[in-house]
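Escalated from tier 1: NDP holo job.
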Amino acid sequence: METFANYINGQLVSKKTDSYLENANPATGEVYSLLPDSSSHELEEAIRAAEKIQPSWEAIGVAGRGDYLNRLADKIESNLDLLAAAESEDTGKPIALAKTLDIPRAASNFRFFAQAVSQFASESHNMDNQAINYTLRDPLGVVGCISPWNLPLYLLTWKIAPALAAGNCVIAKPSELAPKTAYLLSQLCIDIDLPKGVLNILHGRGSQIGRAITQHSKIKAISFTGGTKTGSEIAASAAPQFKKLSLELGGKNPALIFADCNFEKTVEGIIRASFTNQGQVCMCSSRLYVEQPIYQCFKEALIEKAKTLSIGDPLTDVNLGALISKSHQEKVLNYIQLAKQEGGTILCGGQRLAPVGRCEGGFFITPTIIEGLDISARVNQEEIFGPVVTIQPFTSEAEALALANGTEYGLAATIWTENLTRLHRLAKQLTCGIVWANSWMLRDLRTPLGGMKNSGIGREGGWEALRFFTEPKNICIPY
Ligand code: NDP
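Tier 2 regenerated the structure:
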């Protein structure tokens, strides 16, 4: 049994008591590791270390900090196989996905912000002949980064990298369901001699160490990615201290498919958008709206394609692996049952799968397409976060738009059409933070990323992230 340790003040620290949490491999259902169930005691140690080092971390400047971040990126790249295997083992995702998406992106996050911060200029405002104003953007001090299990190292580093680049020191808490790559990252930090206390990684439960981080008065900002309910709790607990908050929350993302789309490319794109990572990407499409003239043939092509997707042992060449946990598998299966009660028809999938061999105890579900549900159905309103989509025809652009905007979420949407004018018109009216045209998850790290409505507040990426992790101060000097 592997035992992970916290990373505090530059060292791997095991818990002194035997309070550890069990961590299972979702593809086999077997517990294979233990992680510290951290408490306020560890948090105090981490904050002391972070506060102590922060002024000198800030003082080494953007080039010095960028150098460390680039070295971390190098280390991640040279440990690609190890990290990808760990991510697959911890989450049940296909190892090929971890190798081509999760881990390379973790390296890019560090590289991108190492460079971005060197271009992060102060604004200056000239008041005719009266005065010059300039804006200083100083780091906040010690900040908290809390991340989920679906893209563990990818999302953890997406927060840590801009926070560190901007001169802050970080207390990070990865998900208790997928802690392994964060633990391995601690070892890489030690390998590159990252100054002690600059980054501290505390494992454990959200309801304990996560909450303690959000409530601690010395933590000046929280960057959180996770569920909407948790986001709302964090907003409530951080509010009395006026902490800065960036909340990237859930989604119920629509795909608008028009009769003039490139049919083959759209079927391929929708399959990817619906089922990548077993549908456990916040940006995944979960409501498919198809223009009436092509509804029938699009639906049939989609079902045919979904049935060809291979599911099973994530260490082999499969399209889909396991869901993150037994309870999550149950939750998704319950939504499929609910869909039937709400009057929906399961067009394909909808079942638990137990592959023979090593993975028979794993948490697999076949890709599921559901038809016949009204927009008001719970299955169309609530985030399922699994390999489940609903499909429905529409007859006019106005109807498509109303359906797309018809939930409390507002994270992402896709539009599939060759009509550029319509594309612009719709993109402008969609109430969500990101719109992809004839594509999905095409990401430029300079662009703002985040959601409207119940999908969160604030934006990450590019200057948005660097602005979040700094405090602006205007200085006005009369001529
Ligand atoms: P959760 O909200 O359950 O957890 C996210 C993180 O917050 C975990 O580290 C968790 O710890 C921690 N946490 C839980 N409760 C608290 C608390 N009270 N105070 C502080 N921290 C807490 O989300 P999941 O991990 O289940 O991730 C799935 C969700 O994330 C989905 O809703 C998905 O849409 C969303 N997501 C959003 C993205 C976006 O960019 N908008 C991107 C990716 C995912 P622990 O693991 O111990 O519970």
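Residues 146-150, 155, 173, 175-177, 205-207, 210-211, 214, 225-227, 230, 233-234, 248-251, 282, 383, 385, 411, 451, 456 surround NDP (CB under 6 Å).
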